[in-house]
Amino acid sequence: MPNTPDPTLAHPSTRPELTTVTFLSTVVTSPLIEVGDYTYYDDPAGAEEFETRNVLYNHGPARLRIGRFCALATGARFIMPAANHPMIGCSTYPFTLFGGDWADATLDIATSLPTKGDTVVGNDVWIGRDATIMPGVRIGDGAIIATGAVVTSDVPAYGIAAGNPARVIRRRFYDDDVALLQRIAWWDWPIATITTHVRTIMAGQPKQLAAVARQEGLLHD
């Protein structure tokens, strides 16, 4: 039997110093949050509380969707669209929030405000410590979000974004290789195949990984 982490365990690492690492799919319960297998959050204060401490203003209809094999460092936060205030008139004060006559007079305004929709994080994304992802942002596969970044706009696949507001400072690979990696989509391979070729996935170049994918019948030209 292969010795690989069990995606159904909250704390999958056999290393005692990594008990702070938690597979999020095992602890998230909110129907508004979707997390793929093997995506983890690392927090010494308790990664199990991710959905209440790190996903803020999470009351529908927008969802947070995170792919597989992502790595989230301590303090990574997602601001959901419910945090937004109206900016169509003289005041940004959320009168509707408090119910009563205020809500009766303004509910139609609040429910018709534009929204940026779901916040989407692709596969194999690394989000650094204390990074903040703003509502409706889409982060592509293989992207890296630097420590302390405030991401206010979309980040392309295999882009590296840093700063406040974050900007893409470079791409990890040339466009042709990015397109190739997304066709390979190693994160969707069977775990046994990933395990067999984990060294190439971790340290190989896109064309080397493409050769493996063709060998396995997982990439066709």
Automatic annotation (TrEMBL):
Q: Name one Pfam family in it.
A: Hexapep
Keyword annotations: Repeat, Transferase
CDD domains, per the entry: LbH_XAT
Q: Which domain of life is it from?
A: Bacteria
Matching Gene3D superfamilies = Hexapeptide repeat proteins
Please name the PANTHER family in this protein's record: ACETYLTRANSFERASE, ACETYLTRANSFERASE RV3034C-RELATED
The name of this protein is: CatB-related O-acetyltransferase
Species source reads Saccharopolyspora thermophila
Lineage in the entry?
Answer: Bacteria, Bacillati, Actinomycetota, Actinomycetes, Pseudonocardiales
